[in-house]
Write a structure and sequence with these properties.
The protein has 153 residues and is an alpha+beta fold. It is built from 4 helices and 3 strands, in the order ααβαβαβ.
Amino acid sequence: MSDLTRISGAELAGLLGAGEVSSVEATQAHLDRIAAVDGDVHAFLHVNAGALEAAAAIDARRAAGEELGPLAGVPLAIKDVLVTTDQPTTSGSRILEGYRSPYDATVVARSRAAGLVPLGKTNMDEFAMGSSTEHSAYGPTHNPWDLERIPGG
């Protein structure tokens, strides 16, 4: 099977729906990729410790015959400006370091309800004031294809 981290979400959703791959396999592939390259790329500020558990829950629901949404089991990165209950939200700023929201942002709640698996929170310009991801209080993110270039917003 091709590298699960290099196919589109739609392609991965098709493989998941057809039972050709599990959400745990897809999520583990993405977590492995994060572990392998994020020391250089610095795209993630937080990696979700519960990602594999969430993926396993989707796999169990699918195995039980539950009708799931078309993207159920697909791993998802969440920009750090979106609040989540299970991970810190800093908006790329040390002012909010360690902040935990009592609720999920609507888009996060809807993605969870659709069965997407949150991988973690991605770096960003502090309070979204920029477009290059060079001005995060936690350091810049680098382009994964050329570490000397910016990744864009």
